Structures are given as structure tokens and as C-alpha cells.
Amino acid sequence: MNIPFLDNWRKRHGGSRGTAVMEAAPHDAEGVAQLLSECELLRRQAESAGIDLADTPESLAALDQLLPRWRDDGPEALARLGNDAGLYLGTVVVRTVPGAVWQVWPSGRPVVRLASGREIDVVGAGLDWALDGAPELSQVYAEASEA
Q: What is the pTM of this model?
């Protein structure tokens, strides 16, 4: 998400490591899921590479095959892309793995809680993917779908 006043604040105060959801209404799970699924920067990157992000496990595998040209764009762009990758990963898990739901920690950090009770820090996984290429998004998804 590109929010101009927030970008200016980050420049003065340093970037953050991920998204926070503040004051999310617990009864509006669909609204939170919709907000977290936007992933605007990642969707633009994927589209320019000819990848259709249809919220499927196959699209995660396609993202894993992208050349990491964004690593030359600077730390802020890298963090934003990694954040979006994590939110997209979470979106795919929530939409395709039975019993998976978004959970918001008291700090505001969104994670995915599986039916088993295990929580996955998808934003952290997305940031690691953007920085290092590992773990692959499809690998995190495979682990989530087996749990």
C-alpha cells in the first residue's frame, strides 16, 4: 500500500519490518482479509513479469522463479515488496487451506493461524524471501497446507 504521509514519516523515523493492523474489528474478518490482500507493489511487479496473481499456490511458485531485480531498488522498496509478498502468501494460505484464518497479534502484526493452532509469520517469511530468496513462498505454503 502506498500511503504518502506514512512514506514521509518512515523516511524521518526509519522503515519498519512489516505491516501492522491497528484496531481491527474482530467481527470484520472479511474486511481485514480484503485489506491485507491488496499487495499493490507485488501485484505490479508480477504483472510486469507476466505473472497472474490469482491467489493460488501456483502463483506462489511463479513468484519464486522471478529474478530478484528489486534487490537493486534500495532497502525501502525491498521492505515494501517483502511485506507485500508475505501478505500475498497469507492471502493464498487463508483462501486455500481449510481452517486457516488471519490472526492479529496484540502488536498489530498479522499472522496466519492454521486449524492446528500453529501460527505462521507470513510477513517475516515474505521479507526473508525478498531479501534472500529463502524460504521460497511455495515452500512456506506447502508446509502450511500439510499442517
A: 0.80
Strand-pairing partners, residue 101, are: 113
Neighbour tally for 79: CB within 10 Å: 19
Cell readout for 2 is 502506498
pLDDT tens per residue, range 54-67? 999 999 999 999 88
**Which residues, other chains included, contact 125 with Cβ-Cβ below 8 Å and sequence gap of 6+?**
86, 89, 135, 137, 140
Distance of CA 41 to the CA centre of its chain: 11
Q: How far apart are CA 40 and CA 13, in angstroms?
A: 23
3-state secondary structure string across 36-52: HCCCHHHHHHHHHCCCC
